[in-house]
Amino acid sequence: MTAPTAPHLWLRHEARTTERRTPVVPEDARRLVEAGVRLTVEESPQRIFPVEEYEAVGARVAAAGSWVSAPPETVVLGLKELPDQPTELTHRHIFFGHAYKQQPGAADLLRRFAAGGGALLDLEYLVDEQGRRLAAFGFWAGYLGAALAVLHHRGRLTAPLRPTDKDTLDETLRPLTGDGEFTALVVGALGRSGRGARAALATAGADPTCWDLAETRDLDRRALLGHDLLVNCVLATTPVPPFVREEDLDDPARGLRTLSDVTCDVGSPLNVLPVYDRTTEWTDPVRTLRKEPPLDLIAIDNLPSLLPRESSTDFSAALLPQLLELPAGDAWARCLERFRRAERELGTDRGGFGHE
Ligand SMILES: NC(=O)c1ccc[n+]([C@@H]2O[C@H](COP(=O)([O-])OP(=O)(O)OC[C@H]3O[C@@H](n4cnc5c(N)ncnc54)[C@H](O)[C@@H]3O)[C@@H](O)[C@H]2O)c1
Fold first, then answer.
1. Domain locations along the chain
2. What confidence tier does 354 reach under pLDDT thresholds 50, 70, 90?
3. What's the whole-model pTM score?
4. CATH assignment of 138-306, among 3.40.605.10, 3.40.50.720, 3.40.50.2020, 3.10.580.10
5. Does 3.30.70.1060 match the CATH number of domain 8-125+325-346?
6. Is 93 among the catalytic positions?
7. Axis-axis angle for helices 138-153, 308-323 (nearest 10)
8. Which annotated residues bind NAD(+) (predicted)?
9. Those residues with Cβ within 8 angstroms of residue 261's Cβ, 6 or more apart along the chain or in another chain
10. Is 134 a pocket residue for ligand 1 (Cβ < 6 Å)?
11. Which of 13, 98, 166, 355 is catalytic?
């Protein structure tokens, strides 16, 4: 990294029209400005916080997408994918690149950085020295994954899903007189999304069974299939026997009625729920896997976007200390090193093809 003077940070508009979240909320923008960071915020029609709130705390406002002509030393900050243009990326970019696990489009993105000499500081790889993520949306993913499952189970889930706020969501989650009891299981219960799922289930008046690594080591699939609701929140790092198999779908003794897959590892060899082949969408959040006995699936891969204010606020609070370290900081150095490794693996670094 370059000399440790406060950088010029540029919060960009998100290209994806349904993305209302932001990695920096106005209150934290104030802290950045007070710390001497030069902050530019792009206008963005869908961002949950109006640009005026950033302007009021001392940020400079720029047009949506104008980061492309920002000065070269600028660090461009966003959450999700960049627009397709320009093909040459010259800046340092902080966002979720999804570029290191051979995801679709990963090689193209790395080539764009190689072509422009820029760098990706991927938020998924912003970790402490133990490798723990420093800023993540998991809690709210789990909260929503469990909330949608309960609402569906109670016949109160309406489509299309729309972004909301926690108070409104919680209103619909609280049990009404006449709501029947149900059993719920959260797997991966000790993680970020597992904690979120447990919180939502508590609001819904349920007391879930909680499993993590210790409880699935010797998997009791019959017990698992005996719950009405399953909320899967695991982050698998090595292949394990699937929690639900194709043959379990046709098991007449299966009690499971709603499967909410927060993990959404569809297509991955690490997938613990290999019983479906594509995620579900905001327009159509529930898919019937079996009619008899009934089993419905909810597998939405952008759950935290449904609570953009709360999820942005928490994420921004976690990211702020790291942004204050820029352009130095061990965590950013680890991010950059991960990017350089991906470049080398692809043979796009300027050292030439495949050289270490
Ligand atoms: N659907 C979405 O919108 C969305 C959003 C954010 C994150 N996610 C995904 O949710 C998953 C969980 O994320 P997180 O932040 O909660 O991760 P985390 O690391 O905080 O928690 C994962 C938990 O799973 C447990 N676990 C791992 N393997 C297990 C096994 N075989 N059996 C039982 N427990 C096991 C771990 O011990 C840990 O407690 C990730 O795959 C992440 O990509 C999805």
1. 8-125+325-346, 138-306
2. very low
3. 0.91
4. 3.40.50.720
5. no
6. no
7. 170
8. 132, 191-192, 212, 216, 262, 300-303
9. 145, 232, 273, 276, 297, 298, 299
10. no
11. 98
